[in-house]
Amino acid sequence: MSAERPRLKLSVSPAAERHLRAGHPWVYESSVRGQNRDGDAGELAVVYDKRNRFLAVGLYDPHSPLRLRALHAGSPATIDLGWWQARFQTALDRRAALFGADTDGYRVLNGESDGFPALVVDCYADTLVLKVYSAAWFPHLPLILDLLAGAFPSFRAVLRLSRNIQALAAAVGLSDGQTLVGEPPAGAVIFRESGLAFEADVVQGQKTGFFLDQRENRRRVRDLARGRRVLNAFSFSGGFSLYAAQGGASEVVSLDISRHALQSSERNWALNPQLTAPHRTVQADVFEWLGGPGETFDLVILDPPSLARREAEREGAIRAYHKLARDGIARLERGGLLLSASCSAHVSAEEFWDTVRQAAERSGRNWREVAKTQHAPDHHASFEEAQYLKAIYLQFEE
C-alpha cells in the first residue's frame, strides 16, 4: 500500500505574494518559484510565503498558465464539504432578492467573484449550464452537482467547456454540450426574463446559450423606448429588440451579420405574441451598414461582440468603438438616444466611455450623458480582470 502523498506546496514571487494578500485569485506559472512535487489538475495546493507561513490555498492546474486559482487566503482553512456548502449558500443568498417570478434565467455562480474560480453556472428555467474554463474542475464536478441538487430540485445539467480544455476533457470522458444530469434537451431551452420568453441554445450556443449579462441594460432600454423607433445593432438573438417592444417602441429593427442570429431573434419574437411593435431584421455588416447612407432612429443600441480578445488588439478596438459611436450618432434623429456597450476586457471602462464621449463631441451636436453602467448584480466582478462589461447612454438634444 503506497504512502499518502504530501500536500502540494508552492512558493511564489514577492509580487505574487502581494497580490494574494490583496485578494487577487490568480497565480501564474511564471510566478511559481518552487514546489515540493508535481501536482494533478484539481488538486488543492497551499502557497507559503518566504517565511514559510500559510498564504493561500487553491486549485492547481498544471495545464494552464494560471497555475493556481486561489480559493482562500489569509489564515489557514480546511477546504471540505462544509466549506464548499457555505460558499455556495453565500452565492445563492447574494441573488435571493434579485429576481421575481417573471425571471428564471440568471447567473448562479460567477467564477472567481463567487469563490468558484474558472467555473460559471447559469440557470435557464429547469436547466443549469456549467461552463468550465479549467481542467482543475474535472475531478470536482460531482461535488458541484451535489451542491446544485440541494438547491435546484429536478434540474437538468449541461456541461460547456472552454475550447482550450476540450482535449483534456475528452481524456476523462467529458465533452462540450454533454448532459450530466437529466435528459438531454430536445432543442432550445425556453426561459423567462422580465416577463419575456427567450430561447437558449445551451448545447451549442455562445457562452452558456444566452447573454444574461446585459439584462439590466435591456431593462433600461425598455424604460427608454416608448414611442421611439429603435435600431438594435449587433442584435444577435434580439434581446434588446424584445425589451424595446415591451417598453412601447413604435418600431424595432434588428441588425446583424449572422442569418442564424437573426433567425433566433425572429423565433424569440414569435415566443412573445403580446409584442405589437413592428419588427424588421436586416442582415448586414454593422460597420458597413452604419457608415453608409440610410434611415434614422430615435434610439440606437450598439452592443458588439468583444473587439479586443488580447491586449495587442486594444488600440484597434478603441478606434472601432469610436467609429461605431460616430456612425451610430449620425443615424440618430434630433432628440435621439445612443446606448453604446463593450464586453472587451482589455479595454477599460474609462477608455471606452472616453472614446464614445469624443465621438459625441466631434459630432457637433449638443448632448448630455444620461448614465454609465457596468456589471449586473448576478455578474458582479470582484477583481480587475473580471471587469469586462460597460455601457454609456448619451441623449442628444432636440
TrEMBL record:
InterPro entries named among the record's database cross-references: PUA-like_sf, PUA_sf, RlmI-like_PUA, SAM-dep_methyl-trfase, SAM-dependent_MTases_sf
Which terms are listed as keywords in the entry?
Methyltransferase, S-adenosyl-L-methionine, Transferase
Give the RlmI-like PUA domain ranges: 12-71
Record-level Gene Ontology MF annotations: methyltransferase activity; RNA binding
What the entry lists under Pfam families is as follows:
Methyltrans_SAM, PUA_3
- Give yes or no: UniProt keyword Ubl conjugation: no
Which GO terms fall under biological process for this protein?
methylation
Domain S-adenosylmethionine-dependent methyltransferase per the UniProt entry, residue ranges? 179-341
User: What name does this protein carry?
Assistant: 23S rRNA (Cytosine(2499)-C(5))-methyltransferase
